[in-house]
Design goal:
mainly alpha; two-stranded antiparallel ribbon; two-stranded antiparallel sheet; 11 helices; 3% strand
Length: 295
């Protein structure tokens, strides 16, 4: 059987693979959002700007410093995390005692400022970034050709997401983090440095966005607008999975990427809105999201 509902099987499987790659980016970005919201109760609207910074720093490292993809994969997430930590210490930390809407407005303003700064310097045109030689070519699976870089993106995203979930849910460090968010005064009474943990948690969350930007650089045109084009979908993914749910964000991101890929095959006109339609349906029946906890 070479066709499914009139669609050639290789084309369908290729689109599914592309959907899984997009889902990997959704999963990693929504994971960073879920970590920040679940641990710090901050809706980080600057997350898309951090993703864009990761891609732009990767391109800049090659263009101006001669550092290739593998160095960028190691250094750029750390650089984005440092930027996040500086912003948390200088700005966000002052708003923790106020309503969460103040932090939301601040991060939204930061996103506009970061994007505007990159647009002022580099313009809005995208810049190409070549796939590293070691990840070039494709695997012959018999029924389709799977590009090596797409397989790499999926493998790295799944590894990072599962490792993050394991650390937060199954280790002593994760227990300290959850305790620090639920009762910071009591946790600090036991000798745990809560402000330090909050700072590192925020840095780790935006570092995940930076890592997603590094992985995305060879798959898309690198430019200042790439974060704003993606973050709206990622927020929808987080809402569907449940705000603050680590596992929900990962599974929902991967699943919605596949659904989006299938929609592009069978009903391309709806591919741009299918995620938001699913969000509306989920919120109608379960306002806390698929994996979220009811208030």
């Amino acid at each position: 059987m070479n066709e499914i509902f009139g669609v050639p099987l290789p084309a369908l499987l290729g689109q599914l693979t592309l959907g899984l790659v997009n889902g990997s980016f959704y999963a990693m970005l929504s994971l960073g959002l879920a970590v920040i919201f679940g641990m710090l109760h901050i809706i980080n609207f600057s997350h898309g700007a951090c993703y864009m910074m990761g891609a732009m720093f990767t391109w800049m490292a090659l263009e101006y410093l001669g550092l290739g993809y593998w160095w960028a994969l190691l250094l750029v997430p750390l650089g984005v995390a440092v930027v996040g930590i500086v912003l948390e210490r200088l700005l966000l930390r002052r708003l923790y005692r106020f309503d969460y809407l103040y932090a939301l407005l601040l991060t939204f303003g930061l996103a506009l400022m970061i994007e505007g700064g990159f647009r002022q310097v580099f313009g809005v045109a995208g810049q190409p970034y070549a796939i590293p030689e070691a990840l070039g070519g494709a695997f012959d699976l018999g029924f389709m050709m799977l590009p090596r870089y797409r397989a790499w993106v999926i493998a790295v995203s799944l590894t990072v997401c599962l490792f993050t979930w394991f650390v937060i849910e199954k280790t002593r460090l994760g227990a300290y983090l959850r305790a620090a968010t639920e009762n910071p005064r009591l946790t600090q009474a036991f000798g745990i440095n809560v402000p330090l943990m909050v700072m590192l948690t925020y840095g780790f969350g935006v570092g995940l966005a930076g890592l997603a930007g590094v992985l995305a650089a060879p798959t898309a045109q690198v430019g200042p607008l790439m974060g704003s084009n993606l973050i709206i979908v990622v927020f929808a993914v987080v809402v569907i999975g449940g705000m603050g749910s680590i596992l929900g964000s990962v599974l929902t991101g991967l699943g919605l990427g596949v659904v989006e890929g299938l929609t592009k095959v069978f009903y391309p006109e709806a591919s741009a809105v299918v995620v938001f339609v699913i969000m509306a349906v989920v919120l109608w029946f379960r306002p806390a999201g698929l994996f979220g906890k009811e208030a």
